Amino acid sequence: MAKEIVSTLSNTVMLKEQSELIELAAKFRLKGFVSELNQQFTNPLIFNGQSFEERLKKCFEEQEAYSKIAKFNSLCKHSLIRNKIRINQLKPSPSRGLTREHLELLSQTEYIKKCTNVIITGATGTGKTSLAVAAAMEAMSYGYSCRFYRINDLIALIECKDPTSFMRFKDTMRKVSILVIDDYGSVKIDDVVAVRLNEIADIRYYSGPTIITTQLKVSSLKEAIDPSPTRDALADRLFRPNDIEIVDYHFLILSIIKIVILFFNLQLTAFLQKV
After folding, report:
1. Which of 128, 111, 255 minimizes the C-alpha distance to 184?
2. Cα separation, 147 vs 161, whole angstroms
3. Separation between Cα atoms, residue 80 and residue 82, nearest integer Å
4. What superfamily does domain 87-248 belong to in CATH?
5. What is the pLDDT of residues 64-79, one digit of tens each?
6. What is the pTM of this model?
7. What is the CA 263 to chain-centroid distance, rounded?
């Protein structure tokens, strides 16, 4: 028994060949592979019963897992998303138009593959941005890239670019899997910006979906674009018949109530003027 203990303890110190193998894997930046090799070489009792093929497979599996995490972290860094949230942190809210089916759909990739845009409407504080971010985070966990902009930041970015830099920016937007435009409608889109935004929407039509959050009703989305020859073209590319619409019904009901109150106030004013 004593001999077995001594033998096991001596194997916890890596042999020269083992160290060289780890150094070689590290040279090729195979950090997951290196981590698993370290585990196997320094814990021989755990792995002695496994075949060479099984141990090698574990090294590749560890490298794959490490690569996925590294890619996800890189995608998150370049997405410009600050406050991160995941789909599993959200709960269905039928009164806000957010169903379990919506959450399941946004946690999968089918809408991304079909380039289906997502329109999320609601008043301030109803969680529109959180839902858009959660959908983007879920997509990045599958390896899809994302870019997040508040509409005023996107407009400022588009306006400051010369023709050459805008071409590069447009190409970047073409390659991004998901574009998130937050708080659409909070500022007007003038004709100059509409032309450039239309170019981006056009090249993204078949390359990836756009997730839009807004306080506007779906029927009023076009009104955020100043009347111009480009207005209809941009609206047609951003807001399509097959879009996924997540509507806050409380917000919709309040809007209807406001319209009714305004109507009666106008009627009352007209009546008092006659009297």
Report:
1. 128
2. 18
3. 6
4. P-loop containing nucleotide triphosphate hydrolases (3.40.50.300)
5. 999 999 999 999 999 9
6. 0.78
7. 41
